[in-house]
Amino acid sequence: MPYSAPRVLIIPGLHDSGPAHWQTWLQGQYRDARRVTQRDPSKPQLERWAERIQRTLEVAATSDGQGEWLAVAHSFGCLALARHLAEQPDSPIREALFVAPAEPDKFGIAEALPHHRLSRRSRLLASSNDPWMSAASAARWAHRWGASYSNLGAVGHINAEAGFGPLPAAKSWVEAARARHAAEQRPRHAEFREWAFAV
Question: Can you give the pTM of this predicted structure?
Answer without folding.
Answer: 0.91
